[in-house]
TrEMBL record:
Protein name: 3-keto-5-aminohexanoate cleavage protein
Xref: Gene3D superfamilies: Aldolase class I
GO molecular function, one term: 3-keto-5-aminohexanoate cleavage activity
Keyword Transcription regulation: no
InterPro entries documented for this protein: Aldolase_TIM, BKACE
Upper lineage: Bacteria, Bacillati, Actinomycetota, Actinomycetes, Kineosporiales
Cofactor dependence: Zn(2+)
Keyword Cytoplasm: no
Pfam families: BKACE
Length: 309
């Protein structure tokens, strides 16, 4: 029998802005509630960012994470995964602040630099709630999301060695798989590895099935039985790529960080709606959904009792 599918939910992220959807969680209370509901709907892992509760801007302050992470942990058993991607334009140290402060079971790690263009969203509206929103989108026309080899070494040693945190390795392009292989070759990482294949971001891999199949093949050759793969795709590609991931024997990620929609032209009323939808697809295909306990065992996590939130 195939292994149960691990669903990750990313409730808010640092890409979409408040004007784009009234359902995007912004305050610590909103993020906590959205995360708990997603876990109840079937998400085993919650991938977390924080936002300024007044403006909705991505915000790296650990005190914001400490407002919602304990509440989530008290209400459900989901694995809490703290982003080290933060918000576009943050320094490496800013992006790490929350993970260092909370010592989570998991943290994300983008394993390569790339052009990260979200300026295409500018033309979709003119009625912005905050002045920062169009400026934030426009600056990505001349922006590189920096994750150098020095950055990767720093994060792996600071969080992995220093805190026992394991990683969601986010790979936006083929070369990122080889960057991860290089980290492994340095003996800085031990299996199992959780590889998140990311599609549909301008500057990274396009959301084409051929790309998914090729990366799956390369990852299998590089990492063999030492890894689990998961797939996320931005925007309208979210659900069909999540379905393909399950069919390939992998795992998947949904959430309003990746897509604001539940279907064509239909804003998702919550993160839980997306989790419930993909869970229905998975179960209709004859697969099971993994519990947090199963995710912890398969990914070799240190356990919820060994965090600092």
């Amino acid at each position: 029998m195939p292994r149960p599918v691990i669903i990750t939910c990313a409730p808010t992220g640092g890409i979409h802005t408040p004007s784009m959807s009234p359902y995007l969680p912004l305050t610590p209370s909103d993020i906590a509630q959205a995360s708990i509901e997603a876990a109840e709907a079937g998400a085993a892992i919650i991938h977390l960012h924080a936002r300024n509760p007044e403006t909705g801007q991505p915000d790296p302050r650990p005190e914001l994470f400490q407002e919602f992470m304990p509440r989530i942990a008290q209400a459900c058993d989901a694995v809490l995964n703290v982003s080290t991607g933060g918000g576009l334009g943050m320094t490496r140290e800013e992006r790490l602040r929350a993970a260092v402060a909370t010592s989570p079971e998991m943290a994300s790690l983008n394993v390569g630099s790339l052009n990260f263009g979200i300026f295409g969203m500018l033309g979709r509206r003119t009625d912005w709630k905050h002045e920062w929103e169009p400026a934030f989108l426009e600056m990505t026309r001349d922006f590189v999301f920096k994750n150098t080899f020095a950055d990767l070494e720093y994060v792996v040693k600071e969080l992995g060695h220093g805190h026992g945190t394991r990683f969601e390795f986010e790979c936006y392009d083929l070369g990122h798989l080889y960057n991860l292989a290089w980290l492994i070759d340095q003996n800085w990482l031990q299996p199992p590895f959780f590889v998140q294949l990311v599609f549909g971001v301008l500057g990274g891999m396009g959301a084409d099935l051929d790309n998914l199949l090729h990366l799956h093949s390369v990852a299998q050759r590089l990492f063999g039985g030492s890894y689990e793969f998961s797939v996320l795709a931005a925007g309208r590609h979210q659900m069909n790529f999540a379905t393909q991931a399950a069919l390939l024997g992998g795992n998947l990620r949904v959430g309003l960080e990746d897509s604001l929609y539940l279907g064509p032209g239909e804003l998702s009323p919550s993160n839980a709606h997306q989790v419930a939808k993909i869970r229905g697809v998975i179960e209709a295909l004859g697969y099971q959904v993994a519990t947090p306990a199963q995710a912890r065992e398969r990914l070799g996590l240190k356990g919820a009792e060994n965090v600092t939130f």
